[in-house]
Design a protein that fits this description.
The complex is a heterodimer of chains A (257) and B (176).
Chain A: H1 24-43, H2 46-49, E1 55-62, E2 76-77, H3 84-94, E3 99-107, E4 110-120, E5 137-148, E6 153-155, E7 161-167, E8 182-188, E9 192-199, E10 206-210, E11 216-218, E12 220-223, E13 229-236, E14 244-248, E15 254-256
Parallel strand pairs in A: 1-7, 2-3
Antiparallel strand pairs in A: 1-5, 3-4, 4-5, 5-6, 8-9, 9-13, 10-11, 10-14, 12-13, 14-15
Chain B: H1 3-7, H2 14-36, H3 39-55, H4 66-83, H5 102-112, H6 116-121, H7 126-137, H8 142-149, H9 153-175
Classes of the chains: A mainly beta (257), B mainly alpha (176).
Keywords (chain A): Membrane, Transmembrane, Transmembrane helix
Protein name (chain A): DUF5643 domain-containing protein
Transmembrane segments (chain A): 48-65
Chain lengths: 257, 176
């Protein structure tokens, strides 16, 4: 290309959008997920770990505490081809340290397992920001999709992971998203859309997801002993739809939307 | 981030990953957005790019610059996203507040593009758009762009010529 560059080339040195797009939060989220996904793949044979699309999502909650998670989970189970300890074992074959929160049949051929892990970051707090104090913790939320084979249940289609980091002060306040009463993560498999997260506001007793057709779906609320309450809502798949997630109190009043 | 600091690595440490993300995160995101015109998808793609880089740093052999290497990975992943079912990938938090429809994102670009030139770039066909962005924004050579797109240099040159011609017409029309 021997022609000189046009004058308007200079305008393309700006970022495409006015708004900040690659935020510190996104960078932290990517770092968390890159590290955790590597740990996952290192723990199991490659031929098993990549046999399909399962879904994992990391919610990083950075807590200013040095205590490590030790509490045993309360498991809510709707269907158990294997008992909960077996699900726990299967999940931990993918990556250790997860507590199963909820198990649900996804189809005749597979089962969704929702789990969480709380880990303390050691060494350089790469997951936190550089000026964060040591002793941060990260909560990872994860959904695995398992299918039975001739011999055993195995992860069904392993996919990419996504993470996000929410910094929380010592009082449990999300100071970057202090207004958030409900933390929401989303993702999906081929025929279902998954929403899940953490209920921050204790007044929220119901989480409702409304799809683009106006159909309402109630999430399963999963109280947990360490103080957080989790929620999980697998929905019928609809492409290119808007979904609305609402937190409601015991009287049906919408607290957050 | 120099070539040499990466090409001999057999395993990437978290600090190097952090440095890469700090230096190239926005650039990766921008290129993904240039291809997909979808903010949420670009978040996902940026993440997948750095996960792939973290896992497979050995795939960097120092034959290209780090930026070219990252742009190539970004393009491949972006095309995968475009070509596969939308929900085959995990989405980021905030899914409920985003509209993935093409028209909505186009309306968003109309309002939120950094300037008029970018606004017009997003009206170009993808084949023109990606070549122009790589050349004008990332200032890559035709050879580097050809390597990323895996097409002959002549094809890059032809597409760039077409993109510039289309852009000149669009901008002339807008400014007249």
């Amino acid at each position: 290309m021997n022609q000189p560059n046009p004058d308007w080339y200079g305008a393309l040195q700006d970022n495409p959008l006015k708004e900040q797009t690659f935020t510190d939060q996104l960078a932290s989220k990517i770092t968390i997920n890159a590290i955790s996904s590597t740990r996952k793949t290192a723990s199991i044979p490659r031929r098993l770990s990549f046999i399909g699309l399962a879904m994992a999502c990391v919610l990083g909650l950075i807590l200013f505490t040095n205590e490590r998670e030790t509490i045993k989970p309360t498991v809510t189970t709707s269907s158990t081809p294997a008992d909960n300890s077996e699900w726990q074992q299967l999940v931990n074959q993918q990556s250790p340290g997860y507590d199963v929160l909820y198990v649900r049949d996804y189809s005749d051929k597979s089962t969704l397992v929702f789990s969480k892990r709380i880990t303390k970051v050691t060494g350089i707090p790469v997951i936190a920001r550089r000026n964060d104090p040591p002793g941060v913790q990260v909560i990872t939320l994860r959904v695995d999709n398992f299918e039975p084979t001739m011999q055993q249940w195995q992860p069904w289609q392993w996919g990419g992971t996504v993470s996000t980091g929410f910094r929380v002060d010592k009082d449990g306040i999300f100071y970057e998203r202090a207004e958030d009463k409900l933390i929401t993560a989303g993702g999906g498999l081929e025929t279902t859309t998954l929403f899940y997260g953490i209920v921050v506001d204790s007044d929220i007793s119901e989480v409702r997801v409304t799809d683009g057709q106006g159909i309402q779906h109630s999430a399963t609320i999963i109280p947990y002993q360490e103080g957080y309450t989790y929620w999980f809502a697998p929905l019928p798949f609809h492409r290119d739809e808007k979904y609305t997630v609402q937190g409601l109190d015991s009287h049906g009043n919408i607290i957050t939307s | 981030m120099s070539h040499d600091s990466l090409k001999h690595l057999t395993e990437m440490d978290p600090q190097t990953l952090e440095d890469l993300i700090a230096k190239y995160g926005q650039e990766v995101w921008n290129f993904a957005y240039s291809i997909t015109k979808n903010r949420s998808m670009s978040d996902d793609i940026a993440q997948d790019v750095f996960i792939q880089v973290y896992r497979h740093v050995t795939s960097f052999r120092g034959e290209a610059s780090v930026k070219t290497w990252l742009m190539k990975i970004t393009r491949n992943i972006s095309y995968n996203y475009r070509n596969t079912a939308f929900f085959r990938r995990v989405l980021l938090v905030g899914i409920t507040s985003n509209d993935y429809s093409h028209s909505a994102e186009q309306s968003f670009i109309e309002k939120e593009a950094a300037n008029n030139v970018w606004k017009q770039v997003f009206t170009l066909p993808l084949k023109f758009r990606e070549v122009l962005v790589l050349h004008a924004k990332y200032q890559l050579s035709l050879k580097e762009i050809a390597s990323i797109l895996q097409v002959p240099e002549g094809t890059v040159k032809s597409r760039l010529f077409g993109a510039r011609k289309r852009m000149s017409a669009l901008l002339k029309e807008e400014w007249s």
